[in-house]
Design goal:
Elements: E1 3-6, H1 9-16, H2 20-35, E2 44-47, E3 54-59, E4 62-69, E5 74-82
């Protein structure tokens, strides 16, 4: 089983600013990640091109960027960002 951490102060700040509903959804994602580091069946997961072992999970209007360290069995949440109208422009 993997351990899930907030990888930096930005991720901790992002999490602290979430509303209760979104925070619960993020907690559920973290529980799933602890069991399955790349849960393609449960969530919309995409590997980040050009970065090794980095993935993005989409939850509604939010995106969770995370890194998987399989050697240490750890997952680091790098950021939790709200998708804006210009995200993919």
């Amino acid at each position: 089983m993997f351990e899930v951490y907030f990888g930096n102060a930005l991720a901790q700040k992002d999490y602290a600013e979430l509303d209760e509903k979104t925070r619960t959804a993020v907690n559920n994602v973290c529980e799933t990640l602890a069991k399955t580091p790349v849960p393609f069946k449960e969530y919309d997961v995409i590997k980040i091109k050009g970065r090794e072992a980095c993935y993005r999970i989409r939850i509604g209007k939010f995106r969770i960027l995370y890194h998987v360290d399989e050697a240490l069995m750890k997952i680091y949440i790098l950021s939790i960002e709200r998708r804006s109208e210009t995200t993919y422009d």
